[in-house]
Known about the structure:
Layout: H1 2-162, H2 167-257
Helix pairs in contact: 1-2
Amino acid sequence: TLAGSVAGAAGSVAGSVAGAAGSVAGDAGSVAGSVAGAAGTIAHDAAGAAGTLAGSVAGAAGSVAGSVAGAAGTIAHDVAGAAGTIAHDAAGAAGTVAGSVAGSAGTIAHDVAGAAGTIAHDAAGAAGTVAGSVAGSAGTIAHDAAGAAGNVAGAAGTIAHDAAGSGRNIIHDVAGAASSVASAAGNIASGIANAAGNAANAAGHVAGDIGNTAGHIAGDVGKAAGNIIGGAANTASNVAGDVGNAAGNVAGDIGDAA
């Protein structure tokens, strides 16, 4: 029994020693596995971080390149648009000025032709009026002269008729004849003065019409010149405004791109 107990105790000690050794070996293996796993995790994380960083750098570079390209395209687009706008406005301004010049020239030509026609018409009317007045005055003079001659002849006949009568009748008839002659002379002078007045009136009308027409022509010329100058100034202002606007847009796009 004692020998069995000693042998059992020895076996138990040997088993405990062997179990402790096995436990130590297991713990060492566990530690080695943990170290290997940690190393693998660190390597995996390092590789993932490197890939993520490379992707981020590449994406940032692509974003910057895209922004630069987009800004360049925007600037080119705005510059081209501004150039087109300037060209369009310049062409429109030139067309407006040309139209104004042509319209003004046509208006001036029309007014000059109308003024010439009015002057010719008034001159012809004045000439006709003068001729009519002269003819009328000549007819009046002839009529008055004939009447005076008739009065003189009548007076002579009356004198001859009354010669056989009293001297009083002769004196009366001579006085009547003299009065008739004086009346005829007055009529002749009045006709001449009337003709001269008509001629002066006609001349005054012609001069007034010429002055009026000249004033209208000068006014139309001034108005046309004012329209041309005003249109050119307005167009120049519009072109300058478009250039400034385009330059501002380009500067703004450059600033945005930067």
